[in-house]
Structures are given as structure tokens and as C-alpha cells.
Here is the input.
Amino acid sequence: MKEKRNSIEEEVGQLLTSLKITIAVAESCSGGLICHRLTSVSGSSRYFERGIITYSNRSKVEMLGVPEDIIDKHGAVSRETAVAMAEGVRRLASTDLGLSVTGIAGPTGGSPEKPVGTVFMALSSKEKTVWKKYLFEGDRASVTWKTSEMALVQIREYCIMRQKRRS
Here is the structure.
């Protein structure tokens, strides 16, 4: 008989719970999919504080405190905006972690500099904020799914590193 493997959602939930870490999420291009996946696990209220869909530039500024000049200078889809979003949602929610994603899910909206599938992701803790840039291929549903998957992977990697530091 095959051993049942936990889903990444369950694994992330177990890690966050065992480490007593709370998280808040600010999503743009994924439109709430990351929050949905995080809260699909029973007991997620132990670690999930809130999720905010900040799709428009105005919402990023008003709700998360992203400086307008960052969006004006670098664009909504940028490392700088993702970092400001992650730090903003962590501060707003008073959580241990803030995760953000901003990108171009397509099929429209891309440019030669930032083609469809470009996603910036940031994870902010009290110690530091790390970011990554991805270029996902596929249609809109595929880009948003891959974004949510990599967000969960990034949370899992952070938790595993945190566990190792504790040992």
C-alpha cells in the first residue's frame, strides 16, 4: 500500500504551526489563489492572519503603503514593488511573515521588458526581505497556478531554514 504524501499546503501548514509562525499575504496577479491554498488546510487559522488582493496600483498604495514613487519609477510589476508589498502586509497584519506576488498573468499586459508570465515574489520577515523573479510559461490559469505553487515553495523553504537554525 502506498504511503499518502501530504500536499504542499498541508506541509506548509504543519511547518508554520510547529514553528509558531504567522503569515499575511498580499496578492496581485494570483487574485487570491495563494490565500485559498493556504486556508484549504484545516487549522489554518493558527498561522494565517489575513490575505489582501491588491490588484490595482491605488490599492497597493492605500492598503499596503507602497510608495507611489516606487510604482511610478519601477512599475507595479517589479522587485521594488513586491518588496514594499511584502513589508507592508507584514506590518499591517503584525505577523511574522509577509508574502507578496505581483506579475503579469496575461494574455495581455506584457511588454518586451516584462513579458506575460513575469512574476516578482517577496517574503518579508522581521530580519530581512528576500525576493525572486520568475518567468512562467502558459496561459493565465497556468501562470497563476505556478505563482501560487512557487509561493508555497518559498514559504516551505523559509520554514525549513528556520527549523535548521533552531536545531
About this structure: The first strand starts at residue 23 and ends at 27. The chain has a mean pLDDT of 96.
